[in-house]
Amino acid sequence: MKLTSLSASNISFALPYRSLLNRSLVTLAIYQGLDAAILDPCDLALNATIIATEALLGKDEYCLKYLEAYRQGKLELPQK
Fold first, then answer.
1. Mean pLDDT per segment of 10 residues, for the chain of length 80 residues?
2. Alpha-carbon span 7 to 13, nearest angstrom
3. Could you give the CA distance from residue 11 to residue 57 in angstroms, rounded to a whole number?
């Protein structure tokens, strides 16, 4: 079995709005079958994006992880 991984922040090095690019890359990579990623675990928006992406792609059966993240407040992003 072949597994895929990536370092999400490499794609956005020295670019503005790095977090936006990283979130977009991870979303596309999950869609294409990404198995593991090296990323910033403190990026709340990225974590919420991963949870939502997995729910929409059917990788989160019955959206249980998504609902649990909602209950724990992990989907609420700080407003700027």
1. 89 91 95 93 93 97 98 85
2. 11
3. 23
